[in-house]
Amino acid sequence: MALQNHCYYDREMLFFYSNSNQTKDDWDNTQLILVQAVGSLFCIFILLSNLLVITAVITNRRFHYPFYYLLANLAASDFLAAIAYVYLMFNTGQASRKLTVNGYFLRQGLLDTSLSASLANLLVIALERYISVMNCKVHSNLTKRRVTLLIVLVWAVSISMGAVPSLGWNCVCHLENCSQLAPIFSRSYLIFWSVSNLVAFLVMVSVYMRIYVYVKRKTAVLKVATSGSMNRKRTPIKLIKTVMTVLGAFVICWTPGLVVLLLDGLNCEQCQVMKFKRWLLLLAVLNSVMNPCIYSYKDEEMWVTIKNLIRCVGNGTRRQRSSKANSRPLSSGQDTGVSQPPSEETKGGEEEQDIIKT
Q1: Are 138 and 86 in contact (CB under 8 A)?
Q2: 265: closest CA among 202, 194, 197?
Q3: Contact, 96 vs 104, CB < 8 A?
């Protein structure tokens, strides 16, 4: 009873790991280094690719539509997921046992907020695509104000999900309710978090299946119609492939981790939830790696814009080298009267104009 009436906010995480029967880290240094190396590669790709997506949406006026605003928000949430995972990687293993309670809440809060935001953005994008497809339009009629409200709602819900444990839904004062995977999180919170995300997953599956059925019927009609253009016939096929890719990636990356969290919340003592916790988290982060590929690089206009941005950066680097070379004084043996080919600066300016035009 004494444990139930006392709070342990002043203890280090080692105390709570011991309470959850985690007296030592089952992973050796080789496994930790392998996970950190793979995770670092994932995070570098997530940061760079999503930064390119956000920049492309900002610079290209053809992307100033609801879908692309939501896409940029998804990229921002995945960008935060990479930062949160980097912070977690350097505060795991023995380092996690030296964290304070507030430090652990910050570590998990960042991760939960970013992953919740990614999931919420995927759901909102699914709803936006549903509205557009059902109205036979490329883009929905959502106003900028409504899109902004949706984005604010996504982040409000995500931040709330990440902050709830630190606001009181934890087991710091009730050690008998602590989970294994998160030693200061209540099992009831893990049940709530996993079930709510699984429900969102089912809603998303339902929406995409509805889109799939509709597009399949529409494609059949377009095949029969002889007056339909080739572009109109190809668009539904591309959409079907994108939808199936999204569903497959989401199922593979999220379902295992959510099921393990649910089992831990249900206090399944024979499920060995600790065995694959780091790999399952890495698998969830992999979804943030795949998102820019699925939602952006399959879009030809987006891919062209991103390639132009990369070329612009490369040309900017070469312009700096060229300017340093041109600043050197000419030797007496050099002929200054011969006309020179266009400089890299001129080429870079032309390519920057092409980016704006796209």
Answers
A1: no
A2: 194
A3: yes
- Is 338 exposed, middle or buried (CB count within 10 Å of its CB: 0-12, 13-18, 19+)? exposed
Residue 319 burial by Cβ neighbours in a 10 Å radius (0-12, 13-18, 19+): middle
- For residue 77, which phi and psi values (nearest 5 degrees)? -70, -40
Residues 6+ apart with CB under 8 A from 15: 8
pLDDT of residue 102: 92
Per-residue burial over 221-246, b = 16 or more CB atoms within 10 Å of its CB, e = otherwise:
ebeeeeeeeeeeeebbeebeebbeeb
C-alpha to C-alpha distance for 350 and 347, rounded to whole angstroms: 5
**Residue 259 clears pLDDT 60, i.e. is over it:** yes
Distance CA 127, CA 144 (A): 16
Fill in the DSSP letter of residue 297: I
Query: 294 or 263: which carries more pLDDT confidence?
Result: 263
pLDDT band at 299 (very low <50, low <70, confident <90, very high): confident
Residues 53 and 290: their CA atoms lie apart, in Å, by 13
* Spatial CA neighbour of 344 closest among 310, 326, 319: 319
What count of other Cβ atoms lies within 10 Å of the Cβ of residue 278?
Answer: 20
125 contacts 78 by C-beta, under 8 angstroms: no
CA distance 193 to 265: 10
144-199 pLDDT, tens digit each: 888 999 999 999 999 998 999 999 899 999 898 998 888 999 999 999 988 988 88
Phi, psi of 170 (to 5 degrees): -145, -175
Integer angstrom CA distances of residue 83 from 88, 112, 277, 291? 9, 12, 19, 16
Q: Going by C-beta distance under 8 Å and a sequence separation of 6 or more, which residues neighbour residue 316? A: 348
> Cβ contacts of residue 87 below 8 Å, gap of 6+?
107, 110
Residue 335 has pLDDT above 90, yes or no: no
Give the SS3 label for residue 12: strand
Residues 67-92 have pLDDT tens digits of 889 889 988 998 998 999 888 888 87
